[in-house]
Amino acid sequence: MKKQVSLALAAVMAAGMLTACGGGAASSAPASSAPASSTAESTAASTEAAAGDALSADITLWTYPVGNFKDETAVGEVIANFNAKYPGINVKVEYLDYANGDDQVTAAIEAGTTPDIILEGPERLVANWGAKGKMLDISDLWTDEQTKDIAAVSESVVAACKNADGVYYEFPLCMTTHTMAINKEMFEAADALQYINEDGTWTTENFEKALQALKDSGVDTTCIVYCGAQGGDQGTRALVNNLYSGKFTSADHQTYTADSAENKKALQQLVDWSNAGLISYDASFAAADELQLFANGTIAMSFCWNASNQNQYASSVTFTPMPVAFPSDDGVPELCGGIWGFGIFDNGDATRAAAAKEFVKFVCEDPDQAVESVRMTGFFPVRASLGDVYAGTADADRMAQFSGFMPYLGDYYNVAPAWAEQRTEWWNMLQRCFMGTAVDESVQTYIDNCNAAIAAA
Amino acid sequence: MPSKTKTPKDTALVYNQGTFRNSALVRQQTVAAYLFLLPALVFFCLFVVVPMVMCLVTSFFDYRMGKPLTFVGFAQYIKMFKDPIFLKALKNTFILVIVAVPAVAIFSLWVSSTIYKMHAFTRSFYRCVFYLPVVTGTVAVAVVWKWMFNKYTGILNYILSSLGLIEQNISWLGDERTALACIILILFTTSIGQPIVLYIAALGNVDPSLIDAAQVDGANNFQVFWHIKWPQIMPTTLYILVITTINTFQCYALIQLLTSGGPNHATDTIMYYIYYQAFKLNDYGYGDAMGVVLAIIIAVLSAVQFKVTGSGSTD
Fold this sequence. Notes:
The complex is a heterodimer.
Chain A: H1 2-22, H2 29-33, H3 36-51, E1 57-63, H4 72-85, E2 89-95, H5 101-111, E3 117-120, H6 122-130, H7 144-151, H8 155-160, E4 171-177, E5 179-183, H9 184-189, H10 204-216, E6 224-226, H11 233-243, H12 261-275, E7 280-282, H13 287-296, E8 301-305, H14 307-313, E9 321-324, E10 337-344, H15 350-365, H16 369-377, E11 380-381, H17 396-403, H18 419-434, H19 439-456
Parallel strand pairs in A: 1-2, 1-3, 6-7
Antiparallel strand pairs in A: 3-10, 4-10, 4-11, 5-8, 5-9
Helix pairs in contact in A: 3-15, 11-12, 15-16, 18-19
Chain B: H1 8-58, E1 61-62, E2 70-71, H2 75-82, H3 84-115, H4 120-135, H5 138-149, H6 155-162, H7 179-191, H8 193-204, H9 208-216, H10 221-232, H11 234-249, H12 253-258, H13 270-280, H14 284-308
Antiparallel strand pairs in B: 1-2
Helix pairs in contact in B: 3-7, 3-8, 3-11, 3-13, 4-8, 9-10, 11-14, 13-14
């Protein structure tokens, strides 16, 4: 009897374990199986009717930390400006971070408590939540005028904001190119600046010469290929793709192409440089760790740089961080882009959807607000009509450094299927390569796992 | 007045009245007890029993965000045991349990045995010191350890290189050979606080007269410990083993904060892999199936611990 009681007690304690695993299994499964497109159509149709009236609604906005959109005061000013024109619409804001934001959105989707508006990039709004039928079709915001205005800056932005069927799930606000950065003083001391062109581009051959020069001048760690987690992974992707002009996905973004000869050659080159001590890798580092070492002056280069980082670290660094392009064999880089904008969750409430659209249009299109909105992000406008939003501001010089890289903006492949799985597979592949597994084998595992994820998606 | 002698009939009547009153009282107390328990029971059912049942049920479905719910029988379980990452996570989890649980129990017992007889102030001081990592937030603990383990700026590499013990800095958390050991070390430091406090209390409750008697009979320290103290602290030991085992199986936060399962899955644990599958890839059905397997493993191990430590024969 006593044994039975004891065993029962043990079983109860172990059963408690299941709680941790069942929490997310909310009862929204049938909802998720409903045809999303029909819901979207009905909501969109009724939105038209509501939009003409004076709107009165309580809506929620969730923002990822895109520039100052993480700052309560700055966002509060945007809402105050909005309310001056739309006093009946009450906007409540919640601020997400990249560490937990996806989990919060996932939990909200499962619980049916998603916000009305969310600020992020197409890889989430289009390729993830849009593909899963959770976002509202906002094609009506993409008027001919808007489409032309955005296409005049980059056709890639237009393409990235819609799915393969042409349904738009994102209304973009800003964009940037991700670059590298070098410690200018370290490079000068090593006489390595000579290997970088005036426009910030350089070749793979010169990159290697610069690495050698830095080592010869006594720099202990030139740069770190971080592969501890997915944060800032666009840096390592751009590094690999550019070294020998590889592509990350096929042209239609349906398959991953890390197994191309160019990409494998680049990976092998990185491993060889690592073995020769010219570069380092760290499987416990994500981009934030690498950036901190760069800001400390411990390492000579960062693979995770952009205008926003330049602004963020400007006050803490004691050297000149100089943005440069990723090295490529032909000296013509293809830089990864970042696009940020608004999406609207399909909450089945026409009035709230209409109010959300008004807010999105106000932030992105309003003649007075749009410029301020872009400046808040610290990136560049996606609309040609906005011109140089930083002209005459204190940020003009800093932003001019980065605007020169915009012509090198490459394909926006982040909307490829199974993107979330791919991101994990990517840094796991880098870890395998640097830890001694043959590049061919490591890449094949990556491709196999990505293909399996695409098939399951 | 002549005394009135109670007849057997009178006695039976009084007895029955008392029984009746007792029964009413018991009923009243039972109802009151259940009313007091009700809030906890409601929460237990809502947040433990219901998710538990849902977890079990959905483990038999292909349940992903944005896809229709499809019954797949045992397919998730079959997939699990063909999944090399799950098997690696399972292996890592068992390594954590096999190393960390005995280490925590033995070290805690040793520390407690050393300090439980000390002056109250000293004893409290040590209790605070060892309990500090328990009350410190996991994130803070992880960040501090991450600093210490940092390959470039960490104090560990600095000390070892200063002593001439290493020639090149080591990426403690980024090297397959050292990452899991680092996790075990951190887990160890954050797990010993509660066992030490419990052991100190348990050792303090051992009847000193039994120890005196044994010593008078010539028992040495080991014999006193083994034959007098050890049997009396056995229930505490059992509790510590079960709780530490469960906590170790649930090791997630440290992995998430320090290594994300890397390098090359060297620190993946079942709990982290469940999180990854369910919340990163939104494959809830697969995550739930792994949760069920983890629960079964813990139940079996806990039962074995009860059996081995002989708690079934005590009470």
